[in-house]
Amino acid sequence: MNYNSVIYKEDIPLIFTLKKKGEALILKSQKKSIIPIDDKKETWIYDKKIYLPTKKQLKYYKAIYDKLDGKDSLIYKNTESNLKKLLFIVGEISKDIIIDETVKNEINKVNTPRFYIEKENDNIYCSIDINYANSLNGLKDSRAKEKIEMELERYKFIKHKDKFIFIGNDEDKYILLSEGIDNLSKIGDVTLSNEFSEIKLIKSNDIISKIEEIDDYYNFGYKIDKVDYSEIAYIMERIKSGSSFYKTKENNFLDLKDTEVVEFFKTIEELNLFNNVYKEEIYVDKFSLIHLDSKIRNKRIPFITGEEKIKELVNKLNNKEENYAVPKDLNGNLREYQIKGYNWLKSIENLGFGGILADDMGIGKTIQTITLLLSNKNKKSLIITPTSVVYNWKSEFEKFADTLKVGVIHGSVSERKKVKENYKEYDVLLTTYGTLRSDFKWYEEKRFDFCIIDEAQNIKNKKSKITELVKSIKANCKLALTGTPIENNLLELWSIFDFITPGYLYNEEKFKYKFLNGDDKSLKELKELISPFVLRRLKEDVLDELPDKIEKEYLIPMTFSQKQIYNSYMKDIKKKLKENKKIKDNKIVILSYLTKLRQLCLDPSLLIDDFKEESAKIKAVKEIIQETIDSNKKVIIFSQFTSVLKNIGNKLKEDNISYLYLDGSIKAKERINLVNEFNNRDKNIFLISLKAGGVGLNLTSASVVVHFDPWWNPAVQDQATDRAHRLGQKNIVEVIKLISKDTIEEKIIKLQEEKKELISKIIDGDTLTGETLNTITEEELLKLFT
Q: Which domains does the chain have, with CATH numbers?
C-alpha cells in the first residue's frame, strides 16, 4: 500500500452522521480507514494521508475512537443531556456533520437562542447568544439558525459585524414593538436593555380613566402614560386616516390597532366636540353619559372606573316605570296608554332631560302634555304650534286644565303686546312659529321651565330662520311633539334632537359622517342613542284602548285681511238686522247673509274675485294633507261648497300633489271608478262635496276625514264620516273639524253643544228654510251674528 509522504498538520476531515431511531441517538462515522500510528494516538492515517491533528480534536476524538472499537457507529439513549454532549463533542472534532431531520427538531429544542436588544444613541442592535454555540458552527444546515436569521430580517435587522442592526422606519419600529418582540420570544429568550425599554408601546392598559359626579355635571378624568394632552388632536387625525400607530412627542408608540384605545380616543373627541380643548378633566352633561354607557356596555372601553354612576342614570332613563299621580284637577280621564305617556314625560322632566313624544296622529299628544304642565303649577311654559292649531290648544287647556291660566301671543300687534306685558300672570304661553319670528326680540331675555314645540317637523330644515329662532329659546326642559319625527331623511331627526338636546347627536357634519348612508352597526348605535328620549306608539299598538273614531276640532284664526273683510260684512249685517225688525220677512236675506259669512270663513275669494291671499283654512288643510302624505295615509276632505273644493284642488296642483275630485256633476259610473281608484291605488287625497258623497260611498281605505266647514246638521256630518268609518274599516278613523275662530262657525258649533233643540229648529236636513226660521226668536237668531 502506498502512502502519501506529505504530513498534514491539521485536523482530520472527519465526517459524521447523527440520526434518531426510536428512542436512540446513533452517531456514525462515514469512513472506517482511520488508524493511529503511534502509542499516544497523536498521529493518524486517514484516507491514505498522514495527519497531525490539533490538541482540541485529539482531546475529544480519542474518546470517540476508543468507544467505536472498530465499529462505525455509537448508540446513545435519546435524552436532552446526551444530545447536548454529542452536539458539543462532534462540533469540536468535525466540520462536516450530516444531521437527520428528526434530530434537527430535537436540536431546535435544546439550542435556545438568547436575544439581547439594546439602544445605543439612535441605533437599535440585536445580539444573539445560542447555548452550545460551538455546536452551531458545525450545524450549518440546522433550521434553528435559518429561522433566527429570517425572523431578524423580517423585523428589519441586518448582519453588522458580530451583531444585527435595525434599519427600519417608524412603522417597522412599531411592528417590532407590537409583534416582533413577542414573536422572537417564541423562539428564544429576549432581554431588553434599559435604554431600549424606554421606547414604550402604549396600549389600553396604560390608560387610567374615572368618572365622578359633581353637582349637575360629571367629571370624566383620564391620564395616558407617555402621552401629552396636546397630542389628542393629532392622534385623532391618525385614527381617521387608518394608521396603525401614533408616534408621540417622546418617541413612544401608541397602538392604534388596540380597539379599546381607538374607542377611548373617539370618546374623548366626542366629549370635546364643541370645546376642542383637550385636557385632563372634561366636564360633561348627562346627555354625554349615554355615549359613554353605550361604549362601556359593549365592552369597547371597559377600563373606565366609576361607571356605576352612569349605569344608575341610564337605568333610570331606560326604565321610566315610576308612577306619578295624575293631577286631581284634570278635567277628564286618561286612557292607560296616556297615563304611561304622562309618566314618561314626568320621568324625562325629573331626570333633567328633553324628549320627543312621537305618538301617532290622534293618540292624544295634546292631553298628555297638558297633564304634564298641570302637574307643574307655578312653572312657566311656552308652547309653539302651527297657526292652524294654536287656538285648539287653548280650547284644550280650557277643557282639561281650566285652573291653568293660558295666554295666546298671536293676532294683531296690540293683542300680542297686551299678553306680553302681563306674561308673568300666565302659566302657559301659546304662540305660533310665524308669530315667534315677529316677536323674537321679546323672547331673548326670557327663560322658561318648559319649551314645547307642536308638529316638530316644522324645524326639520336647519337652515330656516324659524328653526334657528326656536332652537335659541332658553328653557330647562325642551319637548317636541310630532307624529312624523322623520319624513324624508335622518337629518330631520337630528334637527329635532338639536332642539331638545343640543350636541347630543353631534353637530350636523359629524352626524352625517357617522349615520347618513351608514352601515347596520352605525344605525344600531343611533337607535341606542335616541331610544331613551323618544316615545312612539302607533294606533295599532294601543288599539284595544282607543275608540274606533277619534274626533278633534281645530280652531283656525283667520288671516288679517280675511278677518277685516269678515268683520266688515258682519258689521253691515248687524246694522241691517237692527234696522229691520220684521225678521220673519227677511228669511231669504238671512240665509244669504249666513252663506256669505260661511264662505268668508272658508275662502274670501269665493265672494271677492280679486282676493289672492291664501285663506287660513286652506293653509291649515294643506298642512293636514301633507302630514297624511308623510304618514302614508289616505284622507277625505268634505265641504258643502264645490267652489272651495276646486280652490283646494288648485292649490294642490301648484304643489304637484295629485288628488281625486267628486261632486254632483260626476255621473254614477264615473263615481264608482273614482271610489275604486281611491281604495285600490296610490291616490291619497279625495275632495268630495256633500251632495255627491255624503251617502252611498264606501271609502274604507281612508283613515283621516276632514270636515272643511261645519255642517248645520250634525247627523249629516256623521253620515259623511261614515263613508270611511264603516264595516270593513281596519284602521282607526281620525275626524278633524276645521272651525274658523271668532266667527259664526264657532258659534254654531257652540250652539250645537248647548242647545241641540234650537239647532233642529234651524235645520231641516242640510239646508236652512224660511219655515224653520219661523220658530226662532229674534234674540236667538241675532246670537248667530254677534
A: 7-103 (no CATH), 111-197 (no CATH), 201-318 (no CATH), 336-542 (3.40.50.10810), 551-783 (3.40.50.300)
